[in-house]
Amino acid sequence: MIEGAKWKKWLWFYLPMGMFILALLFPFYWMLVTTVRPDSELYRPWNHPLYSPFWTSHPTLEHVKNLLYETLFGVWMWNTMFIALAATLISLFCGVIAGYALARLKFRYAGLLGTAIFITYLVPQTLLFIPLADIIRDYRIGDTPWALILTYPTFLIPFCTWLMMGYFKTIPKELEECARIDGATRWQAMLYIVFPIAVPGILSAGIFAFTLSWNEFIYALVFLSSPEQKTVPVGVVSELIRGDVFFWGPLMAGALIGSVPVAIVYSFFVEYYVTGMTGSVKG
Amino acid sequence: MAEFDRRKFLQYSGAGLAGILASHQAPVFAQAGTVHWIKWNDFVPASDELLRKTILPEAGKALGLKINLETVNGNDLQPRVTSAIQSGTGPDLFMLFNNHPHLYAASAVNISDVAEAIGKAQGGYYKLCRSNTNDGNKFMSVPWAIIGGMIAYRKSWFEEVGYSKFPETWQQYHEAGKKLKAKGHPIGQTLGHTFGDAPTFSYPYLWSWGGKEVDEKGKVVLDSKQTLESVKFMTAFWKDAHDEGGLAWDDTNNNRAFLSGTICATLNGASIYIETLRKPDQYKTDSGAPMKTDILHSPLPEGPAGRFGMHTFQSHMLMAYSKNQKGAKEFLKWMHDPKNFDAWFVSQKGFATPPTQVWEKHKMWNEDPVMAPYKVAGRLGLTPGYAGPANRKAAEVLTKYIITDMYAKAVQGMAPEAAVKWAHEEVSKVYNGA
Amino acid sequence: MLEREGALAFWLLVPTLALLTLFIAYPFVRGVWLSLTNAVVGEPGHFIGLRNFTKIFDDSIFRTAALNTFVYTGVTTVFKLALGLWLALLLNRHFRGKAWVRAFILLPFIIPTVLSTLAWKWMFDPTFSVFNWLFWKLSIINSRINWLGDPELAMASIMTVNVWRGVPFYAISLLAGLQTINPDLHEAAAIDGANRWQRFWHVTWPLLLPVTMVVVLFSIIQTFADFQLVYVLTGGGPANATHLFATYAYQIGIGTGLLSEGAAISLAMFPALLLVVVFQLWYIRRVENR
């Protein structure tokens, strides 16, 4: 608490906090206003006498309608959701068991493998996408969601692994040892004792992975081409920036609505997300 | 062996899952009996609408095919071609700009049969159409259209500063622009990396001063007195008369700026004028009259070496990976048949000029005098790589925006000599394979 | 059989190793090979040794992109750390609505970068910018600010958006770190006569250092390879002034179809990044062992 004069509290706390909140959230407000602003108001230059940026007196839903009916936005949402869920599940599966192995089991290459997994995170996507395109062509999964579902785990698994490693380290070894003394196999101890306790960590990793999948762009841009296969980020950027006709309305509508699923999932799981994020940092 | 089994395993399981997914997904574009056509988002939206609603369904009925049209932002066509070629799957017919067909020739189907037939039947192709699509032995793509580039300008504003006719020379244009910028109406021109307006300005500008990338023998001659003059002039011209935001503009920014009344003139296709015809109530001049009555078109001004133009050119390439090459060829033949092409051409209102000479006689050109300069765009245009041939190397120079960047660097502060030297070196690297 | 730790570990790691080998290790090797050929789109080309690398080091745009990437990463990291730390300190107090605020401020980091960057692009638009309007109304400017059209301003713009996106990540992570610091330590120091600044510098900061270094490490890795933000906001322009390694590699490789050169540019990124990371890891280890 800040003791002392009220103005001190205002100066040192409320003012900076307010400015942070304003700066961080203003773009979303801007998205919202632009989405409901009619075209005639939208295209006034900034030094036009009637430029009124912060509100509009004639809100309209035409941009949202345009977005939902004239483009494949619904399909993109479905694609992105499906890909994100599938990639998250795969990555969780791999990350949880790999994290357990690296955190709990003693074997010769543990340190080396941990480092190797870390190094893969450093390899730039722009180096990989051409060779990956070849692999994807050979397996004939080009232009399908599978191209992404199988490549997203490449950056999701390292995250999940570290997160789970950090989490597993906090679970006391005694629990497993007790179970094994009672006759459980190592496998059973892992599955029935440790994993249930780790559920919050698994949820954290899952939410984090889900958000990262929604955010991916390069692979989606390069491996998908048919409009009905696209994900939301790629679709919005490639199909709503068109020719000479002005589409900022639907563009902001797309940006806004495209952000909603992630925001909703996130809002239900804020605690888990934060734990996940800080866990990965501490781990 | 293990690899073979693994592939089969993935295929079967993938196919099974794909079957489940298919019930939820929209119909897939690439099937037997369909042709996937990708083109740019037309700057005259009415034409794309016409294609989707009327022309393509008709083609489908006549040929027994389903034509799936996809439109993308013009600047995204090149990355799409590369991705499609690399992943071995994608659209059957790709629209390409200018001399890009030379870059992808290895992945194209020899389409000379279709192209030659159209040329012969319609009075022959313009020279620039041939050089962009034919490598000397065969056609790599079928010419589609020429987007004429002219300067669209505000008649009343130029009259106010003493020009009842559009400036004839660069010096006059500079003078007019300077006065207009002082009044808050600068010239708007992009020097950014955008496929249409930037090269169609920088190349003919260079040529009009006598500069060129290569001579007829293919030697790189960019670093010359004439080129240097053009760069020096551009630097002053930009500062005095242009909207300096133009460095970041793509092909749509100048349209928006012109239509909102912030710039007085810009090099463009006819889309600005056509847009004011489409919405006469939305675009008004300061005095309240519809803006369409205040717009006129003119070719680029003359330089010491003459008056030049370069027009954005479009053609369609049939990709080697296409699984329906026969259907695609049938469609091209059908589409270029004057009966069918006519409807599309009219909807363009003169924005696009067809690639063959017979269309100059079309009555549409007589309807609106403002559009008259566009009729002969095909005859006057030159191709990148002038005075050498428009081959793969010229295509690489174009696609790297070297000429545009030469001017962009100079107006951003680089010494003109350095900018010219830089550009000369970059062009040499391409032509001499350094 | 699964009783032996080694065996169990093996089977648990197989899925991960299989995926990462197939989709990272193998393409990485192919990518390196690609950079040593003269392949272009549609033509596999043949081995040409290090010629691509000499070509790109000669390329002034590549040098600009390299410099930009380092500047971009360095400057944004400093700002993100400073602002993130400040915000974390503010959030470390108790106030009404704290849970809401903590949830909302993470939004810039959560929302897909492409979508939020589009909003910024619209806010920076030369003809319709809300910032220009604001400054004009406050009489700070008389004519338009060219956020994305002036090379220096464009760099400042992309850095602004990057900082905006990254501050929440720093803030929340550092907040968690702050919350593990025992308040008794602060009290003890206060009793000993230390003022607020001294308390921060001698108590808080050293204890926060491990978490800070890890956050900075993650952030540097992500920022160095940044693609989406620049692609959407400027596409690398104006006139190549804001290209980073990743966007230039994309433009040359996929845009122009010069695949092998694009691969070379991407590969050039890797050693620099590796060096930075190795240095950081060494530093973290040092800090932890103090």
Describe the structure in brief.
Chain A is mainly α and 283 residues long. Chain A has helices spanning 6-36, 39-42, 62-70, 73-104, 110-120, 125-138, 145-151, 153-169, 173-181, 186-197, 199-215, 218-223, 232-239, 248-268, 270-282. Chain C has helices at 5-35, 51-58, 60-91, 98-105, 107-110, 113-124, 130-137, 151-179, 183-191, 196-224, 228-233, 245-255, 259-289.
How many strands in all of chain A?
Answer: 0
The H/E string of chain A reads HHHHHHHHHHHHHHH
Q: How is the main sheet of chain A built?
A: none
CATH H level, superfamily name of chain A:
MetI-like
Task: Give descriptors for this structure.
heterotrimer, B: 434 residues, alpha+beta, D-Maltodextrin-Binding Protein, domain 2, 2 domains, six-stranded mixed β-sheet, three-stranded antiparallel β-sheet, 17 helices, 11% strand, disordered N terminus, C: 290 residues, mainly alpha, MetI-like fold
Could you explain how this protein is built, in words?
The complex is a heterotrimer of chains A (283), B (434) and C (290). Helices cover 75% and strands 0% of the residues of chain A. Chain A is mainly α and 283 residues long. Chain A starts with 5 loop residues before the first helix and ends with a helix. The mean pLDDT of chain A is 82. With 434 residues, chain B is α+β, with helices and mostly antiparallel strands. In chain B, helix 2 links the parallel strand 1 and strand 2. Residues 1-31 of chain B have low confidence and may be disordered. The two termini of chain B are 43 Å apart. Chain C has a domain at 72-244 and 270-289: MetI-like fold (Orthogonal Bundle), CATH 1.10.3720. With 290 residues, chain C is mainly alpha-helical. In chain C, helix 1 (5-35) packs across helix 13 (259-289) and helix 8 crosses helix 10. In chain C, 75% of the residues lie in helices and 0% in strands. Classes of the chains: A mainly alpha (283), B alpha+beta (434), C mainly alpha (290). Chains A and C meet through helix 1, helix 4, helix 5, helix 6 and helix 8 of A and helix 1, helix 3, helix 4, helix 5 and helix 6 of C.
